[in-house]
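Quick one:
INPUT:
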C-alpha cells in the first residue's frame, strides 16, 4: 500500500520574510563565474543551502505573491543562477575541472529549480485550489491553499507507488470566538451525515474550548493517468464552502493524505484512506482517522475479537484491513490516555509490516505516526512552518533538506508524537514497547527536479532517454587506467575498503559463494549480473548463484552463510521481500552488498557495503523500471571486475579491456534509442492485432528475454511466456504468437540454429520479430521483421537487446491505448447528449458508434478487447439503429457504462499499472526460528553471547525454544584440558537461578563426568535428565578459536504438552533424534507410525529420554494394546 503525506503547522501567518540575504548572493552569481572566482559561486550556493527553509517558507511565498519588490528579488536570483549555469556549462564543454564543474552544475540546477518552480511557480498552481482570485489577498486562505498544495504536491510524487484511490483530510483548529455562518448550517448538516462509503464528510466539533473543523475528500479510479486523483482532490477542496468559510479563523492546520494500491479490499471510495474508527453499534471512533501503508496480517482475528465479539460491526462496504487500526484505537484504548500511548497500544495488537499516521480530532495540534516491521517507512521533515512527513524521501524533497527516518524500529515498531508548542517543533519518539526512541537527522540528497517528467508524455519515455547518462554515472569515478591496467578507487565503492578486507580476512571463513538476489526487474538484473560475474570470476574458487529473494529461505536449508556474499539488487531499497531476506541472511552470517538507487534507503542501512546505481539520486518514477535495470547491470559488471581484481581472477590488460567495453555501453544505448520509429511501426502493425505474445532467447540473451517479458507484461497487461529459443517449438506454437527473438549476442555456431528456429515459428503462422547484430543478414526473409542492434563486447549484448525490447513495449502500450480513442470519442458524445437531450443527433451518434465498429472490425483491438464485449457492443449498436426516436436516459447510461468497460480493457496508462505499484512494500515474512528470550536472558546473565555457541548447537536451542516455559537455572563452567584423550577439568563459575548452589562437585576444579564429559568429548550439545532423573539439562561447550573454553549448563522447564506435528518437526531439527526414534520403533514397536508412538507423550519425554528407553518402558506395545482391546470387546459381549 502506497503513499502517505502529512503536514502539521501552528499557522503563524504574520512572520516576516528574510529576503535581504539574496542581494550579495545574486551579484556574486552574476560576476564571479566570468572572473573564474568559483569559490564565490560555491559560497553563494552554500548560502542558498543554509537558507533553504526560509526560501521554502510561507512567509517568503506570501511576500512574493503580495509584494512586487520581493518577487523581483527572486526573479533576479533566477536570472543570476541561469547566468552562472551557462558559464559552468561552457567550462564543462571545454574540458575544465570536471569534478568541480559537475558539482557546481548539479547545485545550480537544483536551486534554479527550487526558486523558479517550487516558489515562483507555485502561485499558478494555487489557482486549482483557491476558490477565487481574490482569495490570494487573504493571508489565511492563501496559507490554507499553500499548505494543501504542499501536501497534494508531495502526494502526486508518491502516486507511482500506487494510485487506484486517494484521500485527504484537512483539520482546522479555529479561533475560540469563531462560529459558522447560519447560511452554511444546512451544508454542514448534510455533510456530517455522509458516511465513510462516500466522499465529502465534514465534522465541526469543539476541542479544548475551541472549534475544530474537519473535512475529508476521497477519489477512486481503477484506470487513470498520473495526476487524475490529485486534480480531483484539488477540485473538491476548491469547491468546499465550509472549508473556505472557516479558513479565515484558522489557528493552525493538520493535513494527512494517502494514495493507495490495494492489497486488501476492493478499489472503492469506502476503502480509500483515511479510514475512521467508527463501527455500527458504538458511538466511539468517528473522531479518529488513520492512513496505513502495509498489511495488518491478523486483521481477521482482530475483527472477530475486538469488534464482532462485542456485537459491533464495520460497515459492510469497508473491506480494507487498515480499518482495524482506528477501530482498535476507538474500542480498546483509554480516551483519557495521551495519543501516542493509544497508538502504541493499538500497534502492539497488530501483526505485520506497516506505517501509519493518525489524526485525533480532539488533539488537532498533534499528529501521531508509527511504523513497525520490514519494508514500510516514514520520513519526517522539519520546516520553517511545521512538521511534514512522507513515506518516501522524495515526497519531502521539494520542501526540506533533512529528515528523520521511521524505519529503524524493527519488528517491535516505533511511534512518534509530532507536536507544535508555540514556535517550537516538538518530536517525542518511543518504541511500541514503551522505551524512549530517537532517530538521527539525515540529509536529503535529491531535489524535486529529479522527479520531474519534463517534455515527455510519460515518465518511462524520459527515463529510457536518460538511460545512457545513468549508466555513465554508475561507473564514473570508480577507477582510473594506469599503464596497461586499472586501479579501482576503493573509496568510491560504498564501504569498499571493508569489502576488500572481508575478501581477504584470515579470521573469518573464506568467501566461497556469491549469491545474487532481487525481485521483479531487480531479480532479472541479478540474473544478468550472475552471468557477468561468472564470466569475470571463472578463475576464482567461487560459486556464483542467482535466486529470487523469497526463494532463498523457506525452501532451502537453514545453514549458516558465513562464507557467502549476498548481493541484494533493488531499485528502491524498500522492497519487503528483498529486505526481509537480507535481514535473515545477515543473521546467518552473510556479508550483504546492496546494489541500489536510493541513498539512505532501508536496504543501504541493512547492508555491509553498497554500490549506487547512477549517482544514488537518479529517481525513477514509472512503475515499469527501465534505466534502473541498465544501471543495475552496469553496477554488477563494475562489481564483477572489482572482485576479479581483488581475487586476481583477471589481469590488468583484461580488466582494462572489459572496462572499455563498459564505457562504450552508453553511446550504444543511445544508438538503440534511434530505433524507436521502426519499433513504433512494428507495434502499430503487430502488437494491436496479435493476441498471444512470447519472448525467447538463449545463453545470455535469455536475460534480455526475461526482462523484455516483464516490461511487455507490465505495460501491455499481458501474461507472456519467456522461453529458451530452442524450447519454444516443444511448447506452444499452437498459439501462433507474436514472438520477440533475442539473437544479437550469439556464437557463430548458434546463429544458424536460431535461424532455423525462427523459420519454424513463421512456418507455424507466428510473427517472429528478431533482434540481431547489425551486420547479421541470415534472418532477412525468414523473420517477420528484423531489428538490428550495435555490437558490443564484455558480455553486455543482452543490455542493448533489452533497450530495444523496452522501447517496443512502450510503443505497443501506446498503440493499444490509442485503439481506444474511437470509443472515448463515442462515450464523450453520448455523455454530452445525455446531459443535453435537446441536442440529440442520431446521425452523429451513429457515426461515432460506427467508428468504434470499424475499429473492432479492422483488428486493431484484437490484442486486448475480449470477443464477448465486441459481440455485446454490436448487438447494442444494432438496437440503436432500429430505433428512430431518441433513446431514454437509462438506455444512454447503459451504453455509456458499457463503452467505459471496453475503454478500460484497452486503456494502458503506461506509467501507472493496474494492480501494481512502483515499490511493493507488502510481501514475505519468512518467520525464522529464533532463540527464546528466556535463553537469551540466561546467556546474558552468564556473560555469554549467543554467537559463542556453535551454529549447530544454537540451531538445536532454537528448535526447542517454542517449548521452553522457564530457565530454572544456568551455570557457566571454566574448562581446562587434562589430556589428549578427551579428559577435561571443570570449575563452576557464574550461575543464576536454582543453579546458584554451594554443593556443586565443581566448586573446585574436577574432571568432567557424565553428560558434561560427553558434550566436551563430542564437541556438541547434549540433553540429559540430571543425576536424579528429574531435571531437563542442556549442556553445550563454548568455543573460542576452535577450543572449548567454557561449558554451559541450563535446567529447563518445558510445556507439558504440544501438538504431535510440532514435536515431529522439532525432532527432525535435533540432529539424529528423529532417525533414532524411527529406528527404535522399527526394532521395538514395528507396525506403528511416529505419530502413533508420540501420542500422549510429553515434549520432555520425547526430547530428553533415550529413544530405545522410550520405546521399551514408556510406550505401551502395540500387541499389548490390541490384547486389551480384545479383552474389552469380550467383556462387552458377556454383558450383552
Amino acid at each position: 500500500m502506497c503513499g502517505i503525506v502529512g503536514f502539521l503547522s501552528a499557522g503563524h501567518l504574520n512572520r516576516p520574510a528574510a529576503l535581504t540575504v539574496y542581494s550579495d548572493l545574486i551579484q556574486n552569481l552574476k560576476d564571479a563565474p566570468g572572473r573564474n572566482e568559483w569559490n564565490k559561486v560555491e559560497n553563494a550556493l552554500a548560502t542558498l543551502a543554509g537558507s533553504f527553509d526560509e526560501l521554502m517558507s510561507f512567509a517568503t511565498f506570501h511576500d512574493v505573491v503580495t509584494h512586487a519588490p520581493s518577487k523581483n528579488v527572486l526573479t533576479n536570483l533566477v536570472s543570476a543562477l541561469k547566468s552562472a549555469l551557462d558559464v559552468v556549462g561552457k567550462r564543462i564543454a571545454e574540458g575544465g575541472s570536471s569534478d568541480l564543474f559537475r558539482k557546481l552544475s548539479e547545485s545550480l540546477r537544483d536551486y534554479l529549480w527550487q526558486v523558479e518552480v517550487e516558489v515562483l511557480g507555485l502561485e499558478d498552481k494555487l489557482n486549482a485550489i483557491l476558490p477565487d482570485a481574490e482569495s490570494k489577498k487573504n493571508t489565511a486562505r492563501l496559507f490554507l491553499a499553500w499548505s494543501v498544495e504542499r501536501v497534494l504536491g508531495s502526494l502526486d510524487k508518491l502516486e507511482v507507488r500506487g494510485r487506484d484511490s486517494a484521500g485527504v483530510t484537512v483539520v482546522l483548529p479555529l479561533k475560540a470566538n469563531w462560529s459558522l455562518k447560519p447560511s452554511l448550517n444546512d451544508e454542514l448538516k448534510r455533510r456530517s451525515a455522509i458516511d465513510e462509503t462516500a466522499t465529502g464528510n465534514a465534522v465541526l466539533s469543539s476541542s479544548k474550548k475551541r472549534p475544530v473543523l474537519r473535512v475529508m475528500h476521497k477519489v477512486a479510479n481503477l484506470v487513470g493517468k498520473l495526476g487524475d486523483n490529485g486534480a480531483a482532490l484539488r477540485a473538491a477542496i476548491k469547491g468546499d464552502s465550509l472549508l473556505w468559510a472557516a479558513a479565515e479563523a484558522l489557528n493552525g492546520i493538520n493535513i494527512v493524505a494517502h494514495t493507495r494500491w490495494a492489497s486488501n479490499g476492493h478499489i472503492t471510495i469506502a476503502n480509500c484512506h483515511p479510514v475512521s474508527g467508527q463501527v455500527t453499534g458504538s458511538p466511539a471512533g468517528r473522531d479518529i482517522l488513520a492512513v496505513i501503508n502495509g498489511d495488518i496480517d491478523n486483521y481477521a482475528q482482530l475483527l472477530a475479537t475486538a469488534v464482532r465479539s462485542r456485537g459491533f460491526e464495520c460497515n459492510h462496504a469497508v473491506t480494507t484491513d487498515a480499518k482495524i487500526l482506528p477501530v482498535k484505537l476507538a474500542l480498546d484504548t483509554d480516551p483519557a490516555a495521551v495519543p501516542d500511548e493509544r497508538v502504541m497500544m493499538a500497534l502492539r495488537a497488530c501483526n505485520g509490516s506497516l506505517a501509519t499516521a493518525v489524526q485525533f480530532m480532539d488533539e488537532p495540534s498533534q499528529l501521531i505516526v508509527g511504523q513497525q516491521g520490514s519494508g514500510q517507512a516514514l520520513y519526517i521533515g522539519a520546516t520553517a512552518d511545521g512538521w511534514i512527513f512522507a513515506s518516501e524521501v522524495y515526497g519531502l524533497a521539494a520542501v526540506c533538506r533533512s529528515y528523520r527516518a521511521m524505519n529503524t524500529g524493527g519488528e517491535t515498531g516505533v511511534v512518534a508524537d509530532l507536536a507544535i508548542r508555540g514556535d517550537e517543533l516538538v518530536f517525542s519518539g518511543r518504541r511500541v514497547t514503551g522505551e524512549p526512541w530517537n532517530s538521527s537527522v539525515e540529509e536529503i540528497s535529491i531535489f524535486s527536479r529529479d522527479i520531474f517528467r519534463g517534455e515527455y508524455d510519460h515518465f518511462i519515455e524520459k527515463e529510457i532517454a536518460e538511460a545512457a547518462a545513468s549508466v555513465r554515472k554508475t561507473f564514473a569515478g570508480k577507477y582510473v587506467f594506469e599503464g596497461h591496467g586499472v586501479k579501482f578507487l576503493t573509496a568510491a565503492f560504498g564501504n569498499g575498503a571493508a569489502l576488500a578486507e572481508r575478501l581477504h580476512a584470515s579470521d573469518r571463513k573464506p568467501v566461497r559463494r556469491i549469491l545474487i538476489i532481487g525481485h521483479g526487474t531487480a531479480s532479472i538484473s541479478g540474473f544478468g549480473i550472475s552471468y557477468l560475474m561468472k564470466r569475470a570470476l571463472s578463475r576464482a574458487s567461487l560459486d556464483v548463484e542467482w535466486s529470487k529473494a523469497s526463494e532463498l529461505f523457506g525452501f532451502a536449508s537453514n545453514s549458516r552463510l558465513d562464507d557467502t556474499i549476498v548481493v541484494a539488487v533493488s531499485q528502491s531499497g524498500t522492497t519487503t521481500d528483498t529486505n526481509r531476506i537480507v535481514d535473515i541472511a545477515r543473521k546467518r552470517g552473510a556479508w550483504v552488498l546492496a546494489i541500489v538507487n536510493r541513498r539512505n534507503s532501508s536496504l543501504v542501512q541493512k547492508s555491509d557495503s553498497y554500490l549506487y546505481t547512477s549517482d544514488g539520486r537518479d529517481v525513477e518514477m514509472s512503475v515499469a523500471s527501465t534505466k534502473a535495470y541498465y544501471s543495475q547491470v552496469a553496477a554488477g559488471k563494475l562489481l564483477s571486475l572489482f572482485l576479479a581484481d581483488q581475487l586476481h581472477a583477471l589481469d590488468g590488460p583484461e580488466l582494462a579491456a572489459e572496462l572499455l567495453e563498459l564505457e562504450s555501453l552508453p553511446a550504444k544505448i543511445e544508438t538503440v534509442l534511434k530505433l524507436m520509429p521502426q519499433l513504433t511501426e512494428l507495434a502499430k502493425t503487430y502488437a494491436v492485432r496479435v493476441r498471444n505474445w512470447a519472448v525467447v532467447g538463449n545463453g545470455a540473451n535469455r536475460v534480455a528475454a526475461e526482462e523484455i517479458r516483464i516490461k511487455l507484461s507490465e505495460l501491455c497487461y499481458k501474461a507472456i511466456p519467456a522461453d529458451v529459443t530452442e524450447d519454444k517449438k516443444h511448447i506452444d506454437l499452437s498459439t501462433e504468437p507474436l514472438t520477440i527473438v533475442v539473437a544479437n549476442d550469439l556464437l557463430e555456431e548458434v546463429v544458424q540454429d536460431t535461424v532455423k528456429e525462427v523459420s519454424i515459428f513463421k512456418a507455424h503462422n507466428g510473427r517472429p520479430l528478431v533482434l540481431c547484430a547489425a551486420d547479421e543478414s541470415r534472418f532477412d526473409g525468414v523473420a517477420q521483421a528484423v531489428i538490428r542492434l550495435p555490437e558490443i563486447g564484455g558480455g553486455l549484448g543482452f543490455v542493448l537487446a533489452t533497450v530495444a525490447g523496452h522501447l517496443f513495449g512502450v510503443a505497443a502500450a501506446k498503440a493499444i491505448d490509442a485503439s481506444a480513442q474511437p470509443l472515448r470519442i463515442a462515450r464523450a458524445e453520448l455523455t454530452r447528449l445525455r446531459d443535453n437531450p435537446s441536442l440529440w443527433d442520431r446521425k452523429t451518434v451513429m457515426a461515432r458508434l460506427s467508428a468504434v465498429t470499424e475499429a473492432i472490425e479492422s483488428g486493431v483491438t484484437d490484442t486486448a478487447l475480449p470477443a464477448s464485449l465486441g459481440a455485446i457492443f454490436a448487438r447494442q449498436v444494432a438496437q440503436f439503429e432500429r430505433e428512430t426516436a431518441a433513446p431514454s436516459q437509462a438506455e444512454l447510461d447503459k451504453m455509456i457504462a458499457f463503452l467505459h468497460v471496453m475503454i478500460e480493457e484497452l486503456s494502458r496508462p503506461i506509467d501507472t499499472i493496474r494492480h501494481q505499484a512502483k515499490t511493493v512494500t507488502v510481501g514475505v515474512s519468512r518467520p525464522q526460528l529464533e532463540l527464546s528470550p528466556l535463553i537469551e536472558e540466561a546467556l546474558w546473565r552468564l556473560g555469554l553471547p549467543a554467537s559463542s555457541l556453535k551454529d549447530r548447537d544454537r540451531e538445536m536451542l532454537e528448535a526447542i525454544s517454542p517449548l521452553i516455559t522457564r530457565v530454572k537455572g544456568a551455570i557457566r563452567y571454566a574448562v581446562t584440558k587434562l589430556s589428549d584423550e578427551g579428559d577435561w577439568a571443570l570449575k563452576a563459575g557464574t550461575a543464576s537461578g536454582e543453579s546458584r548452589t554451594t554443593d556443586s562437585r565443581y566448586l573446585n576444579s574436577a574432571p568432567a563426568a557424565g553428560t558434561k564429559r560427553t558434550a566436551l568429548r563430542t564437541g556438541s550439545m547434549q540433553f540429559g535428565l540430571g543425576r536424579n532423573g528429574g531435571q531437563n539439562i542442556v549442556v553445550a561447550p563454548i568455543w573460542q578459536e576452535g577450543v572449548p573454553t567454557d561449558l554451559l549448563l541450563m535446567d529447563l522447564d518445558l510445556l507439558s504438552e504440544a501438538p504431535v506435528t510440532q514435536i515431529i518437526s522439532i525432532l527432525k531439527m535435533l540432529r539424529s533424534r528423529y532417525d533414532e526414534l524411527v529406528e527404535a520403533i522399527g526394532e521395538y514397536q514395528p507396525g506403528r507410525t511416529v505419530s502413533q508412538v508420540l501420542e500422549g507423550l510429553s515434549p520432555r519425554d520425547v526430547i530428553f529420554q533415550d529413544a530405545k528407553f522410550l520405546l521399551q518402558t514408556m510406550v505401551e506395545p502395540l500387541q499389548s494394546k490390541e490384547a486389551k482391546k480384545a479383552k474389552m470387546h469380550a467383556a462387552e459381549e458377556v454383558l450383552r
